[in-house]
């Protein structure tokens, strides 16, 4: 009787049905997460587009502010909020749904405090930007705009914990609906205040701040008024317990994500120090723009695998967590191969969609090979990072990112680009080496993981940080 049972368990048909079922679970989260990310990414992009119809100087102000100042706040808040994915996901998987609201409140306390600490960065950013070589007139304008953008920073502090709270329960459709509605309102609002009323930078700040706060209020209404399924049972004093342990995990999450988030952003800054940098900077910007849109897919799979791994480990299902990693990795690699093929086959055609300059288009075509390699590496990397967050390995991955990206990849890029004279291709190629090394290390860690031990650690973490089976008081 046992032999037929084993044959059925490992038969191709049974394996196929398991893959299909797991794929449905992944796409149920990944699809809306990709859509939500695109909508929220588009909020800033649409504002910049409208500002481009005002004048080039104000467009530059908004672009630098979004990329550097608010981009810094966004990356830090998103990273610190990622700690919630480990705890909420494992608590939900372990049947301790009542703790999700407590964890979200703890994250609010930490992120709102972080936002207060970041206020001087926004206020004194003209001096900081001038110090790193930005034109003083632009730096002053960016500083003025950044002060107006402080409400957005506090919206980030509330938004990211809310999103992780909802993602842990796979309630991703509500996030997608809210993001779509706010994006539509943002288009109308931006047109009104920037073009119709001609408020300029003030109008841009009003539309961005209001839209991000609408995202927060829309999601909060769903949680507090409409539906929480026991995950929210009101404000609790438990939110103030064990904040130190929560801060440690939040900081580890922030360092892990920010080291990753800023790595390719540094690329354009470095290329800007080449001799005659205009063409390579423009070409690199186009490639990074394409890579950014491709990254939206990675963000969706990153969210999906974080939820799947944390939920299964919290429930003690170590084999299911391992299988989810395999399916997500295989799916993301297939998507990466498709996009890589598309980039390579259209390398002489797609540059003309972004520029009329022949030299820039030619440079983009040359860089397309490196873009294709980056695409395939970045298809797997978000999944592996998502596994790390789902399992609670943030501190370990932060060290790996630091070593691979900034001790190996960045110096290799500088050596190839400047010392050996390979220019933009050399800088990017060296930095790709850092991404490849990180992927190899993460693959090794994932393959050698004792998933049963991770499930036990998830149970211990919930008990240690207020996850006991009682109410939250």
TrEMBL record:
GO molecular function: antiporter activity; xenobiotic transmembrane transporter activity
Domain of life of the native organism: Eukaryota
Compartments, as annotated in UniProt: Membrane
TM segment ranges: 26-43, 63-87, 108-132, 138-160, 172-194, 200-225, 246-270, 290-309, 321-343, 363-380, 387-408, 428-451
Keyword list, A-Z: Membrane, Transmembrane, Transmembrane helix
Membrane topology of the entry: Multi-pass membrane protein
Main location: membrane
GO biological process terms held by the UniProt record: xenobiotic detoxification by transmembrane export across the plasma membrane
The keyword Membrane appears for this protein: yes
GO cellular-component term (any): membrane
CDD domains on file: MATE_eukaryotic
InterPro entries: MATE_euk (IPR045069), MATE_fam (IPR002528)
PANTHER family: MULTIDRUG RESISTANCE PROTEIN
The family this protein is said to belong to: Belongs to the multi antimicrobial extrusion (MATE) (TC 2.A.66.1) family.
This protein's name: Protein DETOXIFICATION
Organism: Stephania yunnanensis
Organism taxonomic ancestry: Eukaryota, Viridiplantae, Streptophyta, Embryophyta, Tracheophyta
């Amino acid at each position: 009787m046992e032999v037929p049972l084993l044959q059925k368990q490992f038969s191709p048909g049974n394996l196929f049905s398991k893959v299909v079922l797991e794929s449905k679970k992944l796409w149920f989260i990944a699809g809306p997460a990709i859509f939500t990310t695109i909508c929220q990414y588009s909020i800033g992009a649409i504002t910049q587009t409208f500002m481009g119809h005002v004048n080039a100087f104000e467009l530059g102000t908004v672009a630098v502010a979004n990329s550097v100042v608010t981009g810094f706040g966004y990356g830090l808040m998103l990273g610190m909020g990622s700690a919630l994915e480990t705890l909420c996901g494992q608590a939900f998987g372990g049947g301790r749904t009542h703790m999700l609201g407590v964890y979200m409140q703890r994250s609010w306390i930490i992120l709102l405090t972080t936002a207060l600490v970041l206020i001087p960065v926004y206020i004194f950013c003209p001096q900081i930007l001038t110090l790193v070589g930005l034109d003083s007139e632009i730096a002053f304008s960016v500083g003025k705009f950044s002060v107006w953008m402080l409400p957005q920073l506090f919206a980030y502090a509330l938004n990211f914990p809310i999103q992780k709270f909802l993602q842990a329960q796979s309630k991703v459709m509500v996030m997608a609906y809210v993001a779509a509605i706010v994006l539509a309102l943002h288009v109308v609002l931006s047109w009104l205040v920037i073009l119709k009323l001609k408020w300029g930078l003030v109008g841009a700040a009003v539309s961005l701040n209001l839209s991000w706060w609408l995202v927060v209020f829309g999601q909060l209404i769903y949680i507090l008024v409409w539906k929480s399924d026991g995950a929210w049972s009101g404000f609790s004093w438990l939110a103030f317990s064990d904040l130190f342990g929560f801060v440690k995990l939040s900081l580890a999450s922030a360092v892990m994500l920010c080291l990753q988030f800023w790595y390719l952003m540094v690329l354009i800054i470095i290329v800007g120090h080449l001799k005659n940098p205009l063409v390579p900077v423009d070409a690199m910007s186009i490639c990074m723009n394409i890579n950014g849109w491709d990254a939206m897919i990675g963000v969706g799979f990153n969210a999906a695998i974080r939820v799947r791994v944390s939920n299964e480990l919290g429930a003690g299902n170590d084999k299911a967590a391992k299988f989810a990693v395999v399916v997500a990795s295989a799916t993301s690699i297939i998507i990466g191969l498709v996009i890589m093929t598309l980039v390579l086959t259209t390398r002489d055609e797609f540059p003309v969609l972004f520029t009329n300059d022949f030299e820039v288009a030619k440079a983009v075509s040359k860089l397309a090979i490196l873009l294709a390699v980056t695409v395939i590496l970045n298809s797997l990397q978000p999944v592996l990072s998502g596994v790390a967050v789902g399992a609670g390995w943030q501190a370990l991955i932060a060290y790996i990112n630091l070593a691979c990206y900034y001790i190996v990849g960045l110096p290799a890029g500088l050596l190839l680009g400047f010392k050996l004279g390979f220019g933009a291709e050399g800088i990017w190629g060296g930095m790709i080496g850092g991404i490849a090394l990180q992927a190899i290390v993460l693959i090794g860690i994932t393959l050698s993981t004792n998933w049963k031990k991770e499930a036990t650690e998830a149970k211990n973490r919930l008990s240690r940080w207020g996850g006991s089976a009682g109410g939250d008081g």
